[in-house]
Write a structure and sequence with these properties.
Blueprint lengths: L2 E5 L4 E5 L10 H16 L6 E5 L3 E3 L11 H17 L4 E5 L2 E3 L1 H7 L3 E5 L3 E3 L13 H9 L1 H10 L3 E2 H7 L4 E3 L4 H12 L4 H14 L4 H15 L3 H11 L11
Parallel strand pairs: 2-3, 3-5, 4-6, 5-7, 6-8, 7-10
Antiparallel strand pairs: 1-2, 8-9
Helix pairs in contact: 1-2, 4-5, 8-9
Bound molecules: ligand LHQ.
Ligand LHQ binds next to α2 and β6.
Amino acid sequence: MTVLVANRAGYRQITLSRPDRLNALTAEMGGALLAALGEAEADPECRAVLMTGAGRGFCAGQDLVEIGTDIKGLLVGYNAVIRKLRALEMPVICAVNGVAAGAGANLALACDIVLAAKSASFIEAFAKIGLIPDVGGTWFLPRLVGAARARGMAMLAEPLPAERAERWGLIWQAVDDDKLMEAAEALAAKLATAPTIGLALAKRALDAAESNTLDRQLDLERDLQGEAARTRDYAEGVRAFLEKRPPAFTGKR
Ligand code: LHQ
């Protein structure tokens, strides 16, 4: 098994698992990852996903031993994973436990909240082998860190340590190595009791904002807010506030 799936209370943990190759990606692994995300989506009890890597690395990108010649075919598969991560109607947390290189770095960046061990680094390694950042890298990088840093990362392919990645806004937080999984699990557990539909709508609005004018975005916010305000979690959130008690969100419509 190259992708391990564990059911936790309210969320799924998905672990990339080819530790002797730093969890480098294969076509089979891309398919397994997509299937695991599809199962999380189909499970009404699942309200968040936590992704991480087994062993000392998070993901070293495409497996350069098992790469074959069908580069475009591989990317069709990996791109489906990126699309699914962005469309998933629940938060996706990524715990980057070690080096994230090439497609592995950009797989992490496609997640909603990225934590990284302080010893981890992000390497847009593509330039070292004559490729361009893929699986969304050219889209995520300038949006997260700005044009100058995106170009430096893409062209120099140097490791960006987790703490600098946090300072640059590439990730949410760098965490002491021995606290990473504890912090990621606590975050996943917290998000698994959050108003899931509201979070999913916020995720959709933020992605749409990347290409919308303010005018269109205001319309979209109005419409999505209308949808959020029809959820039971909205009613519960307001009721709990007025009753001065913690809300009990169900994540259901
Ligand atoms: C690996 C790999 C690896 C195989 C480490 N493959 N074995 C997508 C789809 C379609 C087409 C093309 O491209 C793409 C996008 C991409 O992702 S292209 C970019 C591919 N990735 C890379 O270029 C990174 C290659 N790896 C490295 O530069 C280093 O391994 C890093 C900096 C990640 C880690 O360095 P170290 O901590 O020094 O570890 P290591 O190099 O000793 O690796 C440990 C083992 O893992 C080693 O095997 P060995 O048998 O010697 O112990 C490596 O050969 C193997 N490994 N990455 N991508």
